[in-house]
Task: structure prediction
Amino acid sequence: HENSVLYHLRTKFDLETLEQVGNTLLQKDILNVLPQQVEVCADLHLRPYYGDEDDTDGLYHSQAKRGTTAFHAYATLYARVKNKRYTLAVRRLEDGDTASSVLAEFLGILDGLDLGVQAVYLDREFYDSKCLTLLQAHNHAYVMPIVRWGRTIKRELSEGWSRVIQHSLTARLDGHSWTVEFPVYIDCTYQNGRYDEHGVARHGYAADAPFIDSLRDARYHYAKRFGIEASYRLSEQSIATTTTQNPVVRLLYVVVSLLLQNVWRYLHWEYVATPRRGGRRVWEW
Result:
């Protein structure tokens, strides 16, 4: 019906406008409660799609996961403050989008905000030469796990004990190539039967940050990013269930879900969590 919200969404809204308006709303009140210095995290989230791909626009194809290679995919930018995560931006992904293009857009958003960036935490999908080049160009501290590409890094992660090495990746774009160099922190631990595994577990992190003073620091600080997974579990509870194939409507539901999460975290922290010595007690619901 012409007077319904869904009618206007399907006929008068486009993805770009919805993203711009959604990001403005996500930032509107949150920026007033964030400190001047924040840690930020970027993540890619893939929602499996099992229907007829010819009937749905804007799908994102990636490696097989949960029995499909087609997804409704979204990239999100978070600010992390005292173990709380506030969404600053969301972007729908389509075929042709790359991790570096998403990161470039998010870094541009951060440049336009009145916030200082303490560090950028990324998952392994952002581990490539172009993303590392962007982080260095913006002069941001960063931590991300490495991917075992090439014989050199595979060898480094299969022998020896904890150490720091210098590594490099080669980038190519429009006929030009360059090499980006960065430190890799290799942190080794004994598994002692955890997850039924034994022997030495070697974790490698591309990290360049002034607060990393020891080999264990890279893994410790990166572990903060795992709170994002809890955010997505909360997102599954707050997002509307739909079978629509319209990408604009689906993005709207994602934006509303993220707005609800932002409001809930703020209200929970300010009015529900109990002040006490050593930090507030956050109640589970």
Summary: Residues 14-150+210-272 form a domain with the Nucleotidyltransferase; domain 5 fold (CATH 3.30.420.10). The longest strand covers residues 176-190. The mean pLDDT is 81.
